[in-house]
Specification:
42% of the residues lie in helices and 12% in strands. With 360 residues, the chain is of the alpha/beta class. β4, α6 and β5 form a beta-alpha-beta unit. It is globular. Bound molecules: S-adenosylmethionine and FE2/S2 (inorganic) cluster (FES). The site of S-adenosylmethionine has 19 residues, from loops. S-adenosylmethionine binds next to loops.
Length: 360
């Protein structure tokens, strides 16, 4: 027991209200409580996942995007972004390389690119699942209709990453143009969940306009949605965006949030992100020590790596996947964990019987 109301409530798995999360976020300035919470997070991580760290082979297959999120380097309105798309064959070559290296989850990530119609995406999903039936396939291709999500699910997609970015309406408006809405973002997440995907939500830490209040709303939303995955990385400015002059998010606050999310959702799959590794050379190691249990090395072709530039100075754009993996393996081992070659499903899914899908 920490004998601080909100911390005890969190550890006791009681339902938290907004004020509890605000109080918890205040403990960021209390190193003693932070450390106790970190130990609790590590204990829970160990209880569900032991010392295992799951890998996901990230395939950034298009940097075309019809959206214009103000923070993002590949936003459609950035005339300086050199655009590329991978063909189905190129995507399959990435999977082949990844499979040989031991990856058992592939993540297809891209901008919102209308070139990849539902038919094209479905064909790609089916081909990957046919060639690699023992692998999980995660999509991260933005906001779509329920119908499209259903088609992708039926074609074999297992998981979907769609960060909610912020659960506060005014903050959402600060980060996105008028044709995007938090309401639709949330609709997508609930649709994905009810279709039986393992779902990932999440947010950048330190995005312009973020505050303790908006972060408390993010945690409230995560408590309500109960996603199987949470993507949490620091915001990093990109020189060609409206936020070029904004400061980057804090590594320490990101680590603290990883800890809180691990305790809030003990079975969660939580990546130590590339953005964390970009701001701090041992960021991913620290992420694992704060409660994360997933890393996502890049499997994209070397020739395109630098073009998928969401933010400045992104790491791992110059090495082959195998080099990345062996460098990460060293970091993972140094943190006392070990990389495994498994699908790495969310804990409840590991029996291969997904729990009853829930609607909203
Ligand atoms: N288009 C898909 C989507 O919207 O979910 C996937 C690609 S999107 C580029 C992936 C994530 O990158 C976003 O959800 C956002 O949180 C993150 N991202 C974009 N720009 C960033 C920045 N400047 N710093 C840190 N993360 C960023
Ligand atoms: Fe592409 Fe936001 S800029 S989804």
């Amino acid at each position: 027991m920490i004998h601080k109301n909100a911390a005890d409530k969190l550890i006791g798995r009681q339902t938290m209200v907004r004020e509890d999360f605000i109080e918890l976020l205040g403990y960021y300035n209390n190193p003693e409580i932070r450390e106790l919470l970190r130990e609790e997070a590590l204990q829970l991580r160990k209880q569900y996942y032991g010392n295992r760290v799951f890998t996901r082979g990230l395939i950034e297959f298009t940097n075309y995007c019809k959206n214009n999120c103000y923070y993002c380097g590949i936003r459609g309105a950035n005339p300086n972004s050199i655009r590329y798309r991978l063909s189905q064959e190129e995507i399959l070559t990435c999977c082949q390389k990844g499979y040989r290296l031991g990856f058992r989850t592939f993540v297809l990530q891209g901008g919102e690119d209308p070139f990849y119609t539902d038919e094209k995406m479905t064909a790609i999903i089916q081909e990957i699942k046919q060639r690699y039936p023992d692998c999980a396939l995660t999509l991260s291709i933005g906001e779509k209709s329920r119908k499209s999500y259903q088609l992708f699910r039926e074609a074999g997609a297992d998981r979907y990453l769609l960060r909610h970015e912020t659960a506060n309406d005014a903050h959402y408006r600060r980060l996105h143009p008028d044709n995007m809405s938090l309401k639709n973002r949330k609709r997508c997440l609930w649709d994905l969940k009810s279709l039986g995907y393992q779902v990932g939500a999440g947010m950048m830490v330190g995005s312009p306009g973020q505050s303790v209040q908006t972060l408390a709303e993010d945690l409230l939303f995560l408590q309500e949605l109960k996603p199987q995955m949470v993507g949490l990385g620091p915001f990093i400015p990109h020189h060609d965006t409206c936020f070029a002059k904004e400061p980057a998010g804090s590594v320490d606050l990101t680590l603290y949030l990883l800890t809180l999310v691990r305790i809030l959702l003990p079975e969660v799959l939580l990546p130590a992100t590339t953005a964390l590794g970009t701001l701090d050379p041992s960021g991913r190691e620290k992420g694992l020590m704060a409660g994360a249990n997933v890393i996502m090395p890049n499997l994209s072709p070397l020739k395109n790596r630098k073009q998928y530039e969401l933010y400045d100075d992104k790491i791992c754009t110059g090495e082959e996947a195998a080099e990345c993996l062996s460098c990460l393996e060293k970091q993972v081992n140094a943190a006392g964990f070990s990389l495994v070659s498994e699908r790495g499903d969310a804990w409840q899914w590991q029996s291969n019987i997904p729990p009853q899908a829930t609607g909203h």
